[in-house]
Write a structure and sequence with these properties.
220 residues, alpha+beta, two-stranded antiparallel sheet
Amino acid sequence: MPNKISSIKFDDKGLVPAIAQDSSTGEVLMMAWMNAESIEKTISTGKAHYFSRSRNSLWLKGETSGNFQEVKSIRYDCDGDTLLLIVEPKGPACHTGERTCFYRSIGEDTAKPSGPAVISMLAQILEERKNADPKSSYVASLYAKGLPRILAKIEEETGELVEAAGIKENDQVLYEFCDLLFHSMALLAHKGIAIDQVFAELARRFGTSGIEEKNSRGKK
């Protein structure tokens, strides 16, 4: 992680606002303040350190709660007066127990999850359906019928996607792809495979050619 603290424009108190963003979902988690020392501590430890204006001291996120933030990247904006910390949260970001500090809205909130957040939220819902009544939840009914039924649905949806790709319009291809993705994610939840593991595996493969990746699997 390159150290470019000299490029940061601190305010007259030596502080700069810092926004923490989930590396997996892109969700904005919290906003806090940092000074040069807290940035250095963050870089040296790999864990987010902030500066408390009320206590006039540094604080390690998670030191009391255990909800640490492992920092993957520290970026700064075009003006150099705001930081963006790309983090892997080890628990809720907010002291209230909410995942993000931005859990309230002014007026009607019509925003829908987008990008990677959709996948993460779907994974959470699929996990929650494990405790649902099979008579009231389609996913719960899949879990109740076990692995053979889930695999049968994946096989069915795969066939429908292949058929759509060959003879149907793109909107139908998209529809069938989402069906296959949904049931594949239900399989992951049934097997106890977290979506973060999927993100981590895809990240591991990033920058590696498909040929190299297949060859590495053959050696295991």
